[in-house]
Description:
Layout: H1 9-15, H2 20-26, H3 31-39, H4 46-56, H5 60-65, H6 89-92, H7 95-106, E1 125-129, E2 140-141, E3 146-151, E4 163-166, E5 181-185, E6 195-200, E7 209-218, E8 222-228, E9 231-237, E10 241-251
Parallel strand pairs: 1-4
Antiparallel strand pairs: 1-3, 2-7, 4-5, 5-10, 6-7, 6-10, 7-8, 8-9
Amino acid sequence: MSGKSALPIRDLRESRGMTQARLAQLTATSQPQIRRLEAGERRLTKDWAERLAPHLGVSALELMFGEDAYDPPSPVGLPGAKRNADPPVAAALSPEMQDNASGSMTSVPPTNARLGAVVQEPRSRIPVFGQAVGGANGEFVMNGDRLDDVFAPPSLSDVAGAYAVYVCGVSMEPRYFDGEIVFVNPTKSVRSGDFVIAQIQIDEHGPQLAYVKRFVRWNARELVLAQYNPEREMRFSADQVISVHLVVMGGAV
C-alpha cells in the first residue's frame, strides 16, 4: 500500500527551504523515517500527518487527502454546511419544516452514556543510545553516548535503566527497519525467539558493539543470535558478551 499523501511531503518541505534532517529534528524522528515517508515506503498515518503538518504549513487533513480535503461541519450545522456558517439549523428550516420537526426537536431522549474526563497517564522520558550509522550487520558502537530522549511506553515508565536505540541498517527487515526505534527493558530475562539488543566486545580494548537481533541461545560457551537479511546465525564467544537485554516493542518515532 502506498504511503504517499495527496500533498507531496517532499514538495512542501522543499518549498519551505527545509532539509529532511531539519524536518526530522522538528518532528522528533530520524532522517531515514522522513525519507521513507516522502518515498511512500511508509504509510502516512493520521499520527504522522498531525506531527508533520504544522511544520509544512498545511493541515493534517490537507496533507493526507489534498487541498480539497473535506472539513467536517460543526455539530450545529446542516450536513455539508461550512463551519461557523449562518443561519443556525432552526433558522435554515422553513416555517412548515419547523412545525413538522418541532416535536422531534424538543423531545430529545435522555443520554444513556456520558464521557468522563480524559485520564492523563504519567509519562517519563528515557534515553536513546547508540550512533546514527551502523556496520554491515547492523551493529553500532554503544559507548553511552546519549543521542536523544523519548517518551517511554507505559510498560517502561517505571522501569529503572530502561532505554531505547535506533535500528541501523536493513539486517532485521522486515521486522525492524532502518531508523526505527526499539525500546529495551534491561531487567527482564530473555527466551528463545525474543528480540534483544546484545552488547559485544570482540577485542579486549576494542569498542562495545550492539546488535539488535533475535535471541536463539546463550550458554557457558557461546551466544547465538539470528538475523533476517540476509538470513544467518551469528555466534559470539560467551566471554565476549557484555549484556543481552529484552526488546519489548519497536516502531516509528
